[in-house]
Amino acid sequence: MVVLLDLVWPLWLAVLVVLVLVFAVAAVLALLGRRRLRAATPLVPQEAVSGVAADVDAVKTAVREGRSS
């Protein structure tokens, strides 16, 4: 694309225009990716967290009651 623009504009201007276009496309894609990442399911596995919480409660109960494994 730079070569085609170089036929009409000076080389420095052609490179600058292509650079701005590439950065604009990258910014738009980054924003779209950020939006999709925020809309994704939570990053914390809720089932695992609740399972660990249940295990901690079971251990606390066993310690309070003086039981051992």
Sequence-ordered SSE layout with sheet pairings:
Blueprint: H1 2-6, H2 11-39, H3 46-65
Provide an overview of this structure.
The chain contains three helices and no strands. The protein is mainly alpha-helical and 69 residues long. The radius of gyration is 28 Å and the shape is rod-shaped.
For the largest beta-sheet, the strand count, sense and barrel status come to: none
- In total, how many beta strands? 0
Q: Which spans have pLDDT < 50 for at least 5 consecutive residues?
A: none
Rg over alpha carbons: 28 Å
Oligomer: single chain
> What is the approximate shape?
rod-shaped
The helical percent reads: over 70%
Beta-strand content estimate: under 5%
Task: Considering the chains and any ligands shown, give keywords for the structure.
mainly alpha; 0% strand; 69 residues
Gist?
The chain is mostly helical. About 80% of the residues lie in helices and about 0% in strands. The chain is built from 3 helices and no strands.
